[in-house]
Each structure stands twice: as C-alpha cells, then as structure tokens.
Amino acid sequence: QIELQISIIMKSLQILANKIINFAPDGVKSDVIRIILDRSLTEGQKMRALFDMVKPYYRPTLSKDGNRQSFIAEKICTKIHELGVDIQSQNQIVDIGGGDGNILSLLREKNTTLSKTHLHCIEDKRWVEEYTFDKDYIDYLFWDFHKIDLADNTIDLVLVMVALHHMEDSTITNALEEIKRFAKKGAYVLVKEHNASPRNLINIEWEHHLYHLLDTLKSGKELEYDAYKERNLFNFKSQRDWHAVFARHGFEQVETLNRFLENNVEKEYKNPTGLYW
Q: Is the pTM of this model over 0.90?
C-alpha cells in the first residue's frame, strides 16, 4: 500500500514537472522529484536546490505556458455565453486576484469597447509575485482585505481564480461579503479552486512552489525563499468545505465543473492538484 501511494505521488509530481519546468531535460525533472521527496531537506533547502538545478536550462523561448491563459479565457467565454452573459455588451467584470489583468485582457479581445469603466482587477500590492499593472484599459484596485472600491449593485460577472486559498478565513469572509455588495442581483461568480485532500496536498503545494521558481526565473532575479514564505499564504480546502463557505454567505451553487469548465469527470491522476470550477 505504501509503495502504491509513493508511485501515485511520483506520477503526479512528474505531471507537474512536465507542465511547469517543461524546458528542463527529463533527467533534471527526475532529480526535481527526488529532491521534493527528500525528507532530509527542509522546504527552503529544496527550493534553493531546485532553483539552482533548473536555472541553467531556462530560456524564455523554451517555456511553453504562454497559451495556458488564452485557453482558459476561451473556456470562460464559452461558459458565460451558455449562462446568458453577452461579452459583446457593456458588462462590468471583476477579477479578484487577477494579477496584471491578463484574463481580463483576453476577454477584452472579444469586445474591444470594454475599458477601465468595465474591467476591474482586484489585487494586493504586497503579494509575493510582482506585477506591472500597466494595461491602460484595466481599472486596478488595491484593496485592504476589508473594502473593495466598487459601487453597490454594479458588477455583472465576477472571476475568482485560484485566489481564495491565498487568503485567511477572515479575508475570505470579507471578499465574499464585498462580492455580494457590488454584484448585481443574479450576477454569476466563477470560482476556480483546488479540491484539497491529504492525498493531493503535496501536489498542490509544490505546484505553487514550482510556479514561483518559474516566475523568479522569468524576472531574472534570484530566489528569496524567506520573503516568499513571509508574503505567501496557503489556506487550501476541500470542495465540500468551499461549497459550505459560499453557502454560509448566501451564494447559490449553479453547477460544479472540471478544470476545463466542462461537465466531464476527469481521472484523478490527470488532475493532480484537484482543480475545479
């Protein structure tokens, strides 16, 4: 049984390594998994060793994650069309934890008349990753974890994509209450989260760590593990717990979908971090 569990974990980590550090040779990816599973090393030691290991192989042209956001933006457009939200109208859209606003930018490609009065990106300037916030057609709002500067009953669509698990429970409460305040009655909230469990927690955590390593490489900076740990927060929950949180705040669950915003049930090994909508 133990050998089977280790085999499943190694297979899951292999999927993540192939996805995130796709530019590294297969032998390096195998060493990455070996280091992650090495119980004699601390998390910080592991991340520093991994950073030094993959750094010589990184080139911006070799990283293939550029199409990831375009793919999910297309899926969002398809889903909101099914829900009756017209991307061609002058809808107001909010993306909580939207970074530089890349998803909002991709949605705007479907309707170039959308501007700062329609596209709102909610972020935290103290977040672990650095963003430029440089898109002049996006309204960047930096909230204090209590109040979001949007008028009552004005927003047609809210996106919250893998952002809630980076908040304390009290902040999640504030975020959901703010959404209820500024969203129009009947507005849709599209939430993407991990269905966390003891079985996949190592995958979820190391997906985040590896993406941070990749972002650090992209920025041309050196890894600062202590700063990463100080500014980062993990608050992963199971699907059941997430549904209960939203129910407590008066949200109505419309449907639960896989990570591709589809009804098809994925095999667990293909989705090692339990992502779903």
A: yes
